[in-house]
Amino acid sequence: MSVSSKKSKGTITIEGHELTITNPEKPLWPEAGITKLDFLQKLIELSPYLLRYCRDRHLTTIRFPHGIHDKSFYQKNSPEPVPEFVTLAPLDGINYVNLDSLPTLIWLGNLACLEFHPSFHHIGDTLPAEWLIDIDPSLEVEPRIMEAAHVIGEILDSLHIRSVPKTSGATGVQIYVPIQRGYTFEQLRKIGHFIGTYAVKKYPGLFTVERLKKNRGDLIYFDYLQHWYGKTLSAPYTPRARAAGTVSTPLLWQEVEQRSDPREFTLHVIVDRIHKMGDLIEQVPPQNLDAVLAHLE
Fold it and tell me: So which domain of life are we looking at (predicted)?
């Protein structure tokens, strides 16, 4: 399945739905040489994995109508008009898109929705679907980010919690923990607070739990608060609006130990990587957190 048009407009038929593709040659990531046509083709290849983490969620996108260096805006309410194949997911007065199909993904991609940020819970549910910790540097270039992620991974491992590190696609790293169903956001925040305060105490020159960026200095923010009902983080396999065309990419812990550079994982290499390594998140079974919670309570 592919799009091919040198014109300012073309069409593509996906799963029986005809979509209009506008300005296919528009540069979206100019430094990386990625046009809208390139982007849409990558989305088609990424769709089995990206949809896995966005389907049946309340989706927020970030749109860059003229590429990553021009104006952007967050899109929570569905763009108008809404094609008949798009499923909406209303919540608190907002008509979110449910990114549950390839036609919906390509429709959003054509509108230059470059980033996909799903809710932490499924539609119609109040319980978290997974647990995410955000390791967020205060500096734009932070050579210690993989060291910080490795430390948190070791703490989780000492608690017998298996996890998957993933690049945010921007400057940070997120720790993704598949969980058994039934835990609440409050319980996960309690564990996060415990790990964060321990990390700050043991590594005071590396971590902080200070929410205000202006008060963090050069410390790396251990963000256990972002994981909450109604909030979002970058989905696994979402592109990000960074010059290199980076993608939020699950990693092996060995790659973290080797201090891999998050900027290595781009739209140019992500599909081959998945074909070679599979979805690393899916390879970790849902974790039971009962023992840790019993200890804290």
Answer: Bacteria
